[in-house]
Design brief:
- It is a single chain.
- By secondary structure, this protein is an all-alpha fold.
- It has a domain of 119 residues: AhpD-like.
- It is built from 9 helices and no strands.
- α1 runs parallel beside α3 and α4 packs parallel to α7.
- It is globular.
């Protein structure tokens, strides 16, 4: 496997320096994901733009976590599952939701379960969902806007999950207590 450099503000390509400084301002450190992505200033900028866009969606904190973690778990991302566990906790998401997503067990309510199911249909079927699947998602209380917001989340997570797989991104110290390994559905 290729050895990907974990860039900091000193070693990063010039076009990534300001983005890494922004990461330090936002998180207090440069997350390993950003440090790896800095090799491609365009990837890092695109990822950060998608992240900001997804944060601005109409989903609440639980729903954002369901979309992110459903994708992370499906992709078996060793970095993003622990990172988003920490993020979810900071957003006030309950351990019931967090644990159900990490362990592929039932979520605490039908609406969140419908969101996970539809998100996974989009991921697994590469966006080719049936009219019945779409109708069921909308009947669960979601909107066409939510459908498109899931696609935004998928785009963001593909960028991070695939980068982490290829670069074997190390899990940041703040998230190491949330280390995760794939489990079969209960």
């Amino acid at each position: 496997m290729a050895d990907f450099k974990l860039h900091d503000t000193e070693s990063a390509p010039e076009a990534s320096e300001a983005q890494l400084k922004d990461s330090v301002d936002s998180f207090g450190f440069v997350p390993s994901l950003h440090a790896v992505m800095a090799e491609s200033p365009e990837l890092l900028a695109g990822y950060k733009a998608l992240h900001a866009g997804f944060l601005a969606t109409s989903f609440d904190a639980d729903e954002k976590t369901v979309v992110w973690q459903s994708i992370n778990v499906e992709h078996e991302c060793h970095y993003c599952v622990p990172a988003h566990t920490g993020i979810a906790k900071s957003m006030g998401v309950s351990d019931d939701v967090i644990d159900a997503l990490r362990n592929k067990t039932p979520l605490p309510n039908e609406k969140l379960e419908a969101l996970r199911d539809f998100t996974l249909k989009i991921v697994r079927d590469r966006g080719v969902v049936s009219d019945a699947d779409l109708d069921a998602f909308l009947a669960a209380g979601f909107t066409k806007q939510n459908v498109l917001e899931i696609i935004l989340g998928v785009a963001q997570k593909v960028m991070s999950n695939y980068t982490n797989h290829i670069a074997d991104t190390p899990v940041d110290k703040p998230f190491q207590k949330f280390i995760w390994e794939p489990k079969e559905a209960a």
